[in-house]
Amino acid sequence: MTLYIGREASKLWKRVCAETTTELNLLLENWKYLLAGLIFQYIHGLAARGVHYLHRPGPTLQDVGFFLLPELGPDKAYISETVFTFVFLSFVLWTFHPFIFKAKKIYTVLLWCRVLAFLVASQSLRIITFYSTQLPGPNYHCREGSKLARLPRPDSAFEVLLINFPRGVIYGCGDLIFSSHMIFTLVFVLTYQKYGTRRCIKQFAWLIAVAQSFLIVASRKHYTVDVVVAWYTVNLVVFFIDKKLPELPDRSNGSASLLLPLSTKDKDSKTKEENHKLLNGNSGDPADWRQRTQVNGKTLEDGNTVHAETTTNGA
Whole-model pTM? Predict the structure, then answer.
């Protein structure tokens, strides 16, 4: 038993080291995109902090979600935050599973480049919407009479830039018409829907996203329109950006080595090998080592030879 555990631990360590080398190579190529995405997360928080200074509390707007869903109350507001934390941490852990598991489909660095692109586009639209129209916040700390509903004039720009994290994010007001929690939740669920492998987890993730929507409205953190707008906007953003970005390589087909940059020595060796194969009448692709036949000046795979010859004789 001890020998088995030691052998498996050794395999796991080698797997982690190999994956770390691969991801570091990808990180060296794509660090600019990751850094830009992370910086924009700060910009998004700064924008939400800025609109809080513009917020003016007022009567809560009429909302069909408030009428249909029972109010959880301020003492149960933690429920939606707990669900969001679970979704966030689960997704982050899943993106790092290639370091541990043998069966893998994604590259962590490339996936996060894609996720951050989705988030940046969606959050940009969110910033535009809540600066275009400021609505009285429905949350308890944003209502009239609350000390947190209005922010006093800042003493310096430095006070604004600090954004008072995390209290300033949790107790923000005015950043409405688009739910931030739903942006993250839907981007994560849509990403796992495409690159995840467990069907039951995909179904459970969608169920969690729907439950999160109801909890946000029941907690009076957002109006129903904020959740509805997030649902169709994030789906459209992910759909169109996903079509513009290059497709991620699928690791399940064993093409991992195609991504890694080759050294000069490796490139020269590979070029000599390809030239040698071409001189001998073979290409570098094992799929091209099959016998080929020319019919009417066209090169065909041997799977099409019989059909082509029949067509030629029939003509």
Answer: 0.77
